[in-house]
Amino acid sequence: MRTSIQKLGKCLMTPLSIIVAAGLLLGIVSLLQNPAIVGSTLANYTLIQGFVGLVQTVVLGLFGLLPVLFAISVAMGMAKDNKEVAAFSTVIAFVLFHSTISYFLKLNGITPDTMNAAYLTEHGKSQLDAVKAVSAYDTVFGIFTYRMSIFGGIITGLWTAFIHNKFHKTELPVAFGFFSGTRFVPIMITLTMPVIGLVMYFIWPFLGMAINQIGFIISESGYFGVFIYGFLERLLIPTGLHHILNQLIRFTPFGGSTLINGEQVSGALIIYNTLMTQASPDLEQMRSATKFLSQGTHPFMLFGLPAACLAIYKTAKVEQKKRVKAVFIAAAFTSFLTGITEPIEFAFIFISPVLFLFHAFMAGMSFLLNNLLDVMIGNAQGGVFDFLIFGVFKGLETRWYINLLIGIGFAFIYYFTFKTLILKFDIKTPGREDEQEELFEEIAETDEKLGELLVRALGGKENIKEIENCISRLRLILDDTSQVNDDLIKQTGSLGIVKINDKNIQIVYGTKVEKMANILKKTLKNL
């Protein structure tokens, strides 16, 4: 189960990258409508307005695709091989799933004609009750169905992966041989998906109610809930499960629900991006959404962790300072520019619970303070570009200057706390280890040698079963993690190693993880 949850967390990252990029594009073009930046003439120019409208339409179209994007991503990520067949089958599964639900809704008299606010108010419901009733349903791919958000995509993706892994190598009798193997998967999907749809027809109203209630509790918990989110989001970093928490907040009612132009919108990131397409967005709705978004990460990503890097460098042994400097300058810039923090965090979270808990606490405080002081900076990446595009360039109404002041304060707090604790408790951060001769040793001069070294460090070709990667980690399933040589892995440029159990291991490489995954796959293929 732990392996599956790890893989699921990784699967949920692919749609996020698309939405974050779309959000950045939306933020950039919205600047063209800001007279303070481009002048009133250009801001009101017809061609500019037309271009902005086109981008907004495209981005809203992407948001509408989110459920099926999650379905495809989950199915491909959880499929063991022939991933393209899993992706193909998922589209079939997604349509059949919602078509089945739509059919039974129709049998029960629930259709777009009977489930709209005007119809319900004419038949005795109050306006509020009518809106609540209508918000439980949605139209997906032209199919009237339950409003399931990304959960519908995750359910169909998981079922498709299960069917795919079970039947993609099935051999049928010779007379039916044409339908054997991967061709058998869509057939089994067609036979089984209506059953899943029927089950969810009865179950989802209760699940949906529970999810909405959890979202309501989170939203009503105020500053405490915001602090807990920030604290847990960092605390889960070593397990990789923070991805699941993030996606629940960003794309489901866990992150809030609100009405925009009479349509219910759920998930903090979706609410924020939808409001970005409005000519005159409700600022209170926007502030409520951003309390879970990148404004809470800027103080420790842009300021706190780079300051921690300086403290680690300052406390390193003299003979190791040059090498520590090379590593942590890169890590600090990565955190500052992109919001990818794991190369820094993995330098201390396993060797010092005190530093780790301090960091998680400060993350919670960052979210709390920004919410308390009404900062309004959105998107989800957390790097300096989010701060500029969705904060500084959006104007003083975002209160970006408060975010900046909090960040400066965090820089001092992180630096002096890290430096004091490292020296007081003699914490063995990089550059302070008792045996350092091999820590930064460069013995792999080419990709080929690097791949061979990594295979050897992982216990050989036969020990490596599956290779995946997320935004900063190489995620591996091995036959036996006890065969892993940690010292050799460090020599491949790793900034951290997480042995989850006797089968699963994660190696932190930061932004070069994609390259390392490709090198490892190529090396295994050639051996």
From TrEMBL:
Entry's Gene Ontology molecular function annotations: kinase activity; protein-N(PI)-phosphohistidine-sugar phosphotransferase activity; protein-phosphocysteine-sugar phosphotransferase activity
GO CC terms, sorted: plasma membrane
UniProt xrefs under InterPro entries: Glu_permease_IIB (IPR036878), PTrfase_EIIB_Cys (IPR018113), PTS_EIIC (IPR003352), PTS_EIIC_1 (IPR013013), PTS_Glucose_EIICBA (IPR050429), PTS_IIB_1 (IPR001996)
Annotated transmembrane regions: 12-31, 51-73, 85-105, 144-163, 184-204, 210-232, 324-340, 346-369, 400-418
Topology of this chain in the membrane: Multi-pass membrane protein
Name the UniProt record assigns to this protein: PTS system, glucose-like IIB subunint
Protein localization: Cell membrane
Species the sequence originates in: Sebaldella termitidis (strain ATCC 33386 / NCTC 11300)
PTS EIIC type-1 domain: residues covered: 1-434
Keyword Repeat assigned: no
